[in-house]
Batch of 2 targets.
Target 1
Amino acid sequence: MRINPDTLPFFNELEKNNNREWFVANKSRWDAIRKDFEAFTAAVIESMVSLDPSIGHPQAKQCMYRIYRDLRFSPDKRPYKCHISFFLATGGRKQGGMPGYYLQIGQEDYGLHGNCALGGGIFMPSPEALAAIRQEIFYNIDEFKQIMAEPAYQRFYGNDFFTMHKLSRVPKGFPADWPDGDLLKYKDYCTMCEMPQQYLDTDELLDQVVERFRASVPLNKFIQQAMYELI
C-alpha cells in the first residue's frame, strides 16, 4: 500500500505558496492526498494493534492532524502545515502527552529531518508523567538499557532520543553521580528516524513503517508501565 504520488509535489509547491488563494485553487489535490493518507493510516492501525493493543481501534481520521496551523501564539503566520501526519496514541486517537507512534510526510518541520520521519515514545509528557518515567528508568535501568540495545532498535534509533530540551544536569531527586544519569536528562523520550525516500512511492511503505514502529513497541510499553496510574 502506498500514499498518493502527489503528496511530496503538493507540499513542495505549498511551501512556496503558503497562502489561502493557492490552497483553495489546489484544494482538490489536497482532498485526494488526505483521502489516500486516511486509508494508509487505517492500514497502519490494523497492522499495529496486534503489536500494541493499547492503541485500540480508532478511526483513521481521529488519528490524523489538520493541515491548518495554530497561529494564536506563533510569530509565523503561514496558514498551512507543509506535511501530513498521524499519531497512534495509547488509548486511541491522537492524545497529546501519551506514548504512541507518529508519522510525518512532507517538508522538514518541527525539528524533524527528511521527507518522512517516524517513531514512537512520548513527546511533551506532563510533569507528573515525566517524573514517573524517570523514576521507572532509575529503578529498572537494566531493562531500559536492554530495550535500547535491541538490534532493531539500534538500527533505526541509536542511543539518543528526539527531544526539544535536555537538562545539563541529572534532575533533582536522583544521585548526581549515577552512572546512567544522562538517560534521566531528557524531557521527551521519542524515538525518531528518517524513512529513505525510495520507499515513499512504493508498495513497501506500509511494511517499512510498521517495521520501524515495531522496534519502538518495547519502549512504549515501558513508558506505559511507568505511567500506569496516570493513564
Note: The helical segments are 7-16, 20-25, 27-48, 60-63, 127-139, 141-149, 151-157, 205-226.
Target 2
Amino acid sequence: MHHKRGGYSYLIRPILIVLDLIILITFSYYFITPLVTLQFGVFLSVIWLVSAYILNFYEVYRFTKVITIVSLLIRQAILMLILMYAYFGLLRISNISFKYNSKFIFLTVLTIGVIKVIIYYALRRYRAYLGGNNRRVIIIGNNKSSQQLSTFFNKRKDLGYRVLKVFSDSLPATINDSFEFLRKEEVDEIYCSIDEINDEVVNEYVKYADQNYCVLKFIPSSQRIFSKRLKTDYYEYLPVLSIPEVSLNNATNRAVKRGFDIIFSLLVIVFILSWLIPILYVLIKIESRGPLIYSHKRNGINYKEFVCYKFRSMKNNDHSESLHVRKEDERVTKIGKFLRRTSIDELPQFFNVLFGDMSVVGPRPHMISYTKEYAKRIDKYNFVFRHSVKPGITGMAQVKGYRGEIKNIEDIVNRIKYDIFYIENWSLLLDLKIVLDTMLNVIKGQEKAY
C-alpha cells in the first residue's frame, strides 16, 4: 500500500507502535519479573501487535472521538489478559499472580492511553494555532451535504483540513476545472458528492487518487442508504464514505497472492504455451489472415487501463471492441470456436499475470466501452468496489456461469454480486477452488462458452 500525502504524519503510527512496545516490555520487567524471559518478551510483543490488529487499535484518525480511543484501550487490555492467561495455561505456568498481572496490564494500557491522548490533543492544538499537520482538500459538489462538510472543515481548524477549493457545475469553478487544478496543485484528499458526478468522472477521480497517492472519499446525500461496500466515517454527524482497504490488498495477502500468480503463470507458460503457441500459429494462420495474438485494452485495478492478450479467435474486423460475441457469431473462425469453447483463447493472459496487470483469479476485466455501459446500470458504489483489486483470468462469476454475452440486467448484476463476494471472502484456498472449478468447466463445457 502506498503511503499517502500529508507531510510526515504517516510516521506517527509507527513511532507510537515502537513506543508502546518499549513501555510494554519495560513494565513487564518491573511488575512480573519472575515470568520475564526472552521468549515471554517476544510473546508479549506479538500478542500486543495481534490484539492491536484485531481491534484496529492504531486506526485513530484526526476525526476520531476520544470516547472511541478509551473504548479501544479497554478492549485491548481485556484481550491482552485473555491471551496472556491462555499462554500460561498452555505452558502450565502456575507461579503467577492475578493481582500483579492485572496491575501490569492496567498500568501499561493506562500509560499508553495517557500518551495517546496527550499526542491526540497536542496535534489538535498544533493544527488549530500553528497551522501545521494540515490536509489539503478539495470538495466536488455544491449540494447541502457538500456545503455542510465545507463548513465543518472551516469551523474545526483543530482537525487540520484546509479546503483549497470547491468545484461544481453550479459554480464558476466547474467539475472539469478540478482536473486542471489537480494537475497544478498538491491535493491530499478529494471529497466527491456522488450524486453530482457521473460514473465516468468517478472513474477519473479513482484513477487520479491511485496514481497520486491521494485519498478519495464520497459524500452521500442524506436520503441515500449507505452502501455496505464502502467504509463509513463520521465527521461529527456528517457521514463520509471511502473505498476500504480490502484484505486482499494488505501487504501479506498481496504477497501470498502474487507469489501464487507468478508460480502458476510460469508453469502454464513453460509447460503449455511453449509448445501450444507454434501449433496455434499455424492453425490460426491457415484459416484467416491476421496476428496470432489479439491485443485489446481493458480496465484493471482502480480503472487503470492495460493491454490484455488473447489468441485471435475471430476474423479481422472493426467490431470486436464494440460488440460481444454472440451464439453462432459469423465473425468467429472454426478454430476460434474451439478456442473459445475450451477457453484456450484466454491462455496468453498468463503473460498479463506475469507482468502484474492481472491475477490468475479475480473479477474478469471488461472492455473499456462495456465498463462505461455497465457502470450506468449498476450501483456505482458496488462498481467502484469491484475495481479495487486486480482482474483475473478466471473468477467466481465465471465458474458460476456468468460469463460471455450480457443478455439482460440480471447477467451483469449477478456477475458483480459474485465478484464482490469473492473480494470480501478471499483466501488462497478459494483461489485454488476456483481454478479447479474452472478446469472442470473446461472439461464439461459451459452454456455461454462461445
Note: The CA atoms of residues 326 and 407 lie 10 Å apart.
